[in-house]
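User: For documentation purposes, I need each entry recorded in a consistent format: the amino acid sequence on its own, followed directly by the corresponding structure tokens. There are two entries in this batch. Please keep commentary to a minimum and don't merge the entries.

Assistant: Recorded as requested. Entry 1:
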Amino acid sequence: MTHRTKKYIALGMVALLAPLMLIGKVRASDHADTPDIAANPGTDITDVYMFPSPTNADNIVLVMNVHPLIGSGEGTTVGFDPNVLYQFKIDNNGDGVEDKVIQAKFTGAGAAQTVSISGPVRPSMTGKDSVQETPLAVHGTLNAPFSPKSGMTVFAGGREDPFFFDLEQFLNIFPDRATPLTGTPVADPNTPKQSSWRAPGVAKDFLSTGKYNVLSIVVELPKRSLQ
């Protein structure tokens, strides 16, 4: 299993007064790890990325992936949860309190959804409490890049899941760890447990071979706008 690094960026989302917030340097990934989160895939953050723009040295790219395990060919038909406020929270001084926030809010259902972007702006509320800030004037649609304001480009829609996970070997090591995703263990629980991950080149990427997708929120903007 490959772990992703989320550095100096906090993210959160608000759904029915139950916010999730990650602050600081975190290594993690989540794919339907509990029955509750499997039943509400729109609230399931799989990975978050932050990296320099490959086309503009003055820009930075933020990516939030949610709603894992979308089947092959279904990426353009699934929408985000309209009851969720998806947020990138940026802490610039290491005090664990966000200084800037970028928010995405979706309206409608399925592929016909529209998306509004707020920020980057100093948030009206911090920590576990959040409120949608004033949206930018230009809204977008799913699976099509748009520019909410000058210098910012946003994409929201289906993409291939980039997370690498050898599920078969995981269940060989932990045969009792079946989830709502797997249903029953791959391995016979009466056989001896394996003790280690398979070597590179031998491990099997379950998400790739199963052609599973996620919903991605991608924001590219000038670095200076986050400072």
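Entry 2:
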Amino acid sequence: MALLKKGLISLMGLQLVFMLLLPGIYAAEQTVQPIDMTPNALSAVLMDADTGTIIMNKNMDTKLPPASITKIMTMLLIMEALDQGKIKMTEKVSTSEYAASMGGSQIFLEPGEEMSVEEMLKGIAMASGNDASVAMAEKLAGSEENFVQMMNERAEQLGMKNTHFVNCNGLPAENHYTTAQDIAIMSRELLKHSIITKFTGAYQDYLRKDAETPFWLVNTNKLVRFYTGADGLKTGYTSEAKFCLSATAKRDNLRVIAVVMGEPNTKTRNAEVTKLFDYAFAQYTNYPLFKAGDSLGSFNVSKGAQTQVPLVAKQNYSLLLKKGEASKGLRHELQLEPGLKAPITLGQPIGKIMVYKDDALISEFPLESPVAVSKAGWWKLLKRTTSNLFLLK
């Protein structure tokens, strides 16, 4: 009888344990596993261009050969040189024998042939011209070798920790690699130069328009024709890298970057990037804080040749929100470093934009000085002090 009683108690205990476990087992069965939208890619990233937020990733830090996606860095250095006034769009670029000897994708430049910077940029962005890339590298740095050094230095500045370039065009080379995340980072930086999409977003155009037979360009990125909002950025293919793409699209306020590497063919590559874009635009929205060019106020510089510096947004500042997520209670404020003193260097950190949801800090954006401010000379400081004394009276 005692044995029977013990057995019943044990059975009841087991039933109780099983009943307690049931909700957990049921919940596990009901959990929806995230779908891999890029099953064929070796590596992938989906990023919000404004905030740099990574929405989705797959093996994003795996080092892989990037093929012609390399040219995103080449285009970035060209755009920065244009911004700095080192070159002009109309300036002529001569083609060396070395540049003309590049194989693979090319615009068939002849040794000694000249084209404008704008035409070269068009040839790089649309036709993936290896010859045009080298010609521009030589124009900006004297040699491709020097230009590649600039590429690696810029990659380091951007925090591209898993990237090393050996050439400016992505032709197969030992020790030439990057990652999906690093490609997204440099793509985001390139998109800060909004004029670039004039080239990367065009489906077709011509070079040598005045020639007897103009050279017809067709964009290697077919999404710019077939996907609404797509306007760049760069395709890539070698037998080693397979099919790669860094693509961008914008709808309403939301711009996203999708990177896939190691795809088996162009059809799959484009289909998987399309899925990433569709997901982003269906699920997310962008809450704008400031647009590029908006006034953010100004900041004071103690003992500077310039006492007050206007502060203008150099990029879009926004928040990435899930659709349906309430934006109520969002506020932002400018927080400047206390006691800013001359000299101030160009790009020196001078404060942050702080974003709050009610009283909780949810995001912050660093601010840099848009100009260099030298220290005022003693005579200017004396005049300023005297003037202030009279004003006080």
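Summary note for entry 2:
The chain has two domains: 43-288, 291-379.
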